[in-house]
Design brief:
Layout (H helix, E strand, L loop, with lengths): L1 E5 L6 H13 L8 E3 L1 H4 L7 H11 L2 E6 L13 H11 L3 E7 L8 H11 L4 E4 L2 H18 L23 H15 L9 H7 L3 E2 L2 E2 L1 H7 L3 H4 L5 E5 L11 E5 L3 H15 L2 E3 L10 E3 L3 H14 L10
Parallel strand pairs: 1-2, 1-3, 3-4, 4-5
Antiparallel strand pairs: 6-7, 8-9, 10-11
Length: 315
């Protein structure tokens, strides 16, 4: 999101520079915001300055106004660039953040006092006395915007909604099959004809009616479309050295149920299997060198407890 920083440039030269440097250097905010400073971002051109900065206001996502003692240069109508920029941001319906320097307004230009009063009638202002206070206040306001627009997650990963996913991205047959298995194996309380939406609600897999990350991992038609790193990679090496070429390498996709089953089959196919005789029956006994239950438990733990927000896939 583009932030237009509006102020009397000479009065707020230090604050404007401090804000731009902070926002471009902060690990979180720089992922979501970029700033526009007239004095840094506009090359020389054959255009009126007021036409340029008003165009930039129209192109921005957020208006950030710094109001101090000076009102600034006035046009023929008696309005300063800062005043014109605020008016344009208001007309365009932009999100506006206003920060006023100083604890009181006694020393301010009369028109600046009037502008502060007018702005205070329609939005909440914050006051600051130093660049450090300004940066902290702006940070808090921008984080609040990210929270309100659900661009950053506050709750646990699995319980928050999966961006761009809808209920149509879930496989209802998978939900129905899960319900049948859960009733037979775990005495799940819902009857087998329960509609999928009610099953999801009962399992807390919806966030404001939207599928959560857990719902996508469990029941999506294509989970890796939304969580690309949820795939599982299995590799088999001869001996104890990890070296290339890899004798056997597989990448598995699907729901977490699919991933566990596929990874378990891969491991079992690579370990020794003892096969007995039919001395005591028609079925020859078999036994893996590592019990199947142990293999399954290890894989389930790896799939369930991995960090699905990280870049590397589960291995």
């Amino acid at each position: 999101m583009r932030i237009f920083i509006s102020s009397v440039q000479k009065e707020f030269a230090a604050e404007r520079k401090a804000l731009a440097e902070y926002l471009s250097g902060d690990p979180l905010l720089r992922r979501f915001f970029e700033t526009f400073l007239f004095e840094h971002d506009v090359p020389a051109s054959d255009r009126r300055p007021d036409a340029v900065y008003l165009d930039e206001v129209r192109n921005c996502d957020l208006y950030l106004g710094l109001f101090g003692d000076d009102y600034g240069w006035e046009n023929k109508d008696g309005l300063s660039p800062t005043h014109l920029e605020l008016n344009e941001a208001t007309r365009q319906g932009k999100t506006r953040l206003i920060f006023v320097k100083g604890a009181d307004d006694d020393a301010k230009h009369p028109k600046m006092r009037a502008l502060i009063r007018d702005a205070g009638d329609t939005l909440v202002r914050r006051r600051f006395n130093s660049s450090e206070e300004l940066v902290a206040a702006v940070y808090a306001s921008l984080v609040r915007i990210l929270e309100e627009r659900e661009l950053i997650r506050l709750g646990p990963f699995d319980a928050t909604f999966c961006r761009n996913a809808t209920l149509d991205d879930l496989d209802q047959d998978k939900i129905t099959r899960f319900l049948g298995l859960a009733r037979r194996g775990r005495n799940f309380p819902l009857p087998e004809d329960t509609p999928p939406h009610e099953v999801l609600t009962h399992l807390n897999l919806l966030d404001k009616g939207r599928p959560t990350h857990a719902a996508i991992l469990l029941f999506a038609k294509q989970p890796q479309r939304f969580l690309i790193t949820s795939e599982v990679k299995c590799a088999h090496f001869h001996g104890y050295e990890v070296a290339k070429p890899i004798p056997s390498y597989q990448v598995y996709k699907g729901t977490v149920f699919d991933l566990v089953d596929q990874a378990k089959d891969f491991v079992l196919s690579k370990i020794d299997l003892w096969v007995g005789t039919r001395e005591h029956g028609t079925q020859a006994p078999t036994k893996y060198e590592i019990p199947q239950e142990v293999v399954a438990e290890a894989i389930v733990n790896a799939v369930v407890h991995r960090d699905y927000t990280s870049t590397p896939a589960c291995r």
